[in-house]
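To whoever is on call:

I kicked off a structure prediction for a single chain this morning and the downstream step that reads the tokens threw a length-mismatch warning. I double-checked the sequence; it's 364 residues and nothing unusual in it as far as I can see. Pasting both halves so you can look.
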Amino acid sequence: MSADATTSDTARDRPFLGMLCKIIAMLMFAIMFASVRWLGPHFPIGEIVFFRSTLGIPVIVVAAYFSGGLHLLATKRIDSHALRSIAGVISMYCNFTAYTLLPLADVTAIGFAAPLFIVMLAALLLRERVHVYRWSAVVIGFIGVLVIIGPGTRMASGTTIGVAYALTSAALAALAMIFLRRMSAHEHSTAIAFYFMLTAAVISLFTLPFGWNFPTGTEGWVLIASGLAGGVGQLFLSFSYRYGEASLLAPFDYGATGASNAPEWSPDGARVVFHRDVSRSPQIFLVDVAGRRVTQLTSSGRNEDPTWGPDGRHIAFISDRTGRRQIWIIDTETGRVRQLQTPGAARLPAWSRRLGRATVASNP
């Protein structure tokens, strides 16, 4: 073996650096997914993917420039990039769609099938030696997620399509990671991330004729945040698989889950509403930023996806307290709660800016 090859192999075999990059990537993706979850009721998936990809490209270009020059983006293996990028783009579309169809915790739990797929594919396609402790880490991590989610978690009625999207996304994401690990032997991490972003931007642009919405105010800032976070996350994800084996890094996907979800600032910026598990059942909480006082607003049934009304007083949320997921509204000043009837199982409540009333996506 040549000295150059030895140096190259040694440079790639840096597991702790790979793990650190994967952790940073998971943090960035958590920010991106929270943004996508918020944007779901307002924008089509194609538009969200376009902004997520297009705004991430400058991040990759700047990283390449400071890492050695823009020549790092050059490639002679466009076929490999095509396979990795197409798998990743389809996975991203499926994942974003699942986030608009299912509760956040359900999509997160289903997505944790990806590390299992990665370990199996790494053993089969990359011929990696997957030792018992790595299999154990993946299995224990998956069991831990099920414990966090809790046996009381159940899918909303009529969400079979959402589950299918989430499972498809997990499988294709695992395949994309295997491609990424294989390519990292001869392609720079910035090039891998760049061509993925470019492919996603071009494909999503074809959805423009189907109707995009013009972002304004907060929506624009959240779209920008999703793009920048996705770009940084994609860059660190590429670096992680350059330095660490796929089967080693797979268990770190379990770090993307969390106990508190859906935080949202009040219109005046004085309070934050969010839902958090209490005895394995999500409840709505309110935080006074100045006084740091936390108030629990709900206690009956499973209550999640809170969103502020334009008046800064009312909060719409989803609850199954009557046996079915429906939209409810609570007055934060009086504590009065009332239900809005919807034709099916409700999800993702959103307020009409013009009418000042709650609207909701529902499953028939």
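Update from on-call: the warning came from a stale cache, not from the record. Cleared it. Sanity check on the structure: Confidence is low (pLDDT under 50) at residues 1-11, 148-158, 354-364.
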